[in-house]
Amino acid sequence: MEKIVILGSTGSIGCNALEVIKIHKEKYKVFALTANKNVDLLTQQCVDFEPEFVIALNQDANQQLKKNLLALNIKTIVLDDEKSLDWLASHKDTATVISAIVGAAGLMPTMAAANSGKKILLANKETLVMAGELFVKAVKKSNAILIPIDSEHNAILQVLPQSKKMNYKSNGIRKILLTASGGPFRTFSKEELKHVTPKEALKHPNWLMGKKITIDSATMMNKGLEIIEACWLFDIPACDIEVVIHPQSIIHSLVEYIDGSTLAQMGNPDMRTPIAYALSHPERIESGVSGLDLIKTKRLDFEAPDLDKFPCLGLAYKALLMGQSAPTILNAANEVAVDAFLVESITFNQIAELIEYCMSAMKPQPLDSIEIVLEVDSKTRQLALSWINSHNLTS
Q: Start and end of every 1-deoxy-D-xylulose 5-phosphate reductoisomerase C-terminal domain (predicted)?
């Protein structure tokens, strides 16, 4: 039986992963669950799956979790130290780690899993954006297995030749096409985008996701981060990655080959599909998702992204061209900007302004260690907060 650690079990990816695992309890055993502060849901997950270990990173939530499990006579051990994430991700008794923590917080435990040679089901795209070269080196050195859960990268994996590694050069690929829904503001004008609210931005037309990734989808930064992620996952240059707006979110991505063939992975927009494929790769298992009804779907639309309205996408390409620590700066500035937008300290359009400012103000440098990655991340956040304080709408 395959023992699994889920980093970020109360988020969208974690909950969907548990739904798939529930169908296949004879194959998979939840070894550990981690979350931030959703103590009620985390308690219920412990009741349902009886993991050996659990931790809520928020101290108050963790204390309440202990009380809850004691009252319910659940034998799961509640850990206290934040370093427990790294310990769980590298634990000798587990084979698979689902990295579903949102943002830079997922970097260190995911690196720990890579250094320990685990099978890593990666939803935390920030690990590759912040420290792609270091992470890929760690995966190769330890013979870890890296399988993307993002629907787009998982789709690419599904249409690559299964007899070969995830490698652009050896698979006869001409280019990769990443599809994007366009988010809730696809048809908005630049003028209309000046006035959108967090509440409007959190209404994604196709997917139910956490706040951060939903805002990233609205700005199209999510697709920018996925471009950077794809470069590292598939060893492909940015110039051979094309973004295509596909409002229905039925085609999850495509691969164009040198013989003129273009292969696409299609399905209903449901994260249980890529999670099930990642868990069982290269085999397939039941996910609980219904098949695609082509008659009901009726049509598939495509259009080019508007980089003028959604400059975050262009900033991601720019960060790739700049190289070194530029993607790390991009990611840190974006995380700070999204948090500020959600509390209405800055406007929707100022998200891109802030990111561009940080990328211009900070000179890219080589990322020779995780310590340098974390230092760049910290300095960028400080710079971004300073910019926000000088532009704060509520001040």
A: 146-234
What is the number of helices (H) and of strands (E) in the chain? Answer: 17, 11
210 has binding-site annotation: yes
Amino acid in the structure at residue 140: K
**What whole-number distance in Å separates Cα of residue 30 and Cα of residue 18?**
9
Nearest Cα to Cα of residue 317 among 240, 264, 218: 240
E strands, 19-150, in order: 28-35, 53-56, 77-78, 96-99, 119-122, 145-148
Q: Is 226 annotated as a binding residue?
A: yes
Q: Sketch out the chain's domains with CATH numbers.
A: 2-148 (3.40.50.720), 157-297 (no CATH), 323-391 (1.10.1740.10)
Residues 144/118, Cβ–Cβ less than 8 Å: yes
Helix or strand holding residue 386 (H, E): helix 370-391
* 94 in a known ligand binding site: no
Q: Report which DSSP code applies to 333.
A: H
**Chain segment 227-268, per-residue pLDDT in tens:** 999 999 999 999 999 999 999 999 999 999 999 999 999 999
- Contact of 251 with 264, CB cutoff 8 Å: yes
pTM of the model as a whole: 0.92
Which residue has tokens 């427990």? 84
**Residue 369 marked in a binding site:** no
Q: In what order do the strands lie in the sheet with 96-99?
A: 77-78, 53-56, 28-35, 2-7, 96-99, 119-122, 145-148
Residue 388 to residue 282: CA distance in whole angstroms: 46
What is the spatial distance between Cα 54 and Cα 81, in angstroms, rounded to a whole number?
11
pLDDT mean across residues, the chain: 93
125 known ligand binder: yes
What does the alpha-carbon distance between residue 75 and residue 54 come to, in Å, rounded to a whole number? 11
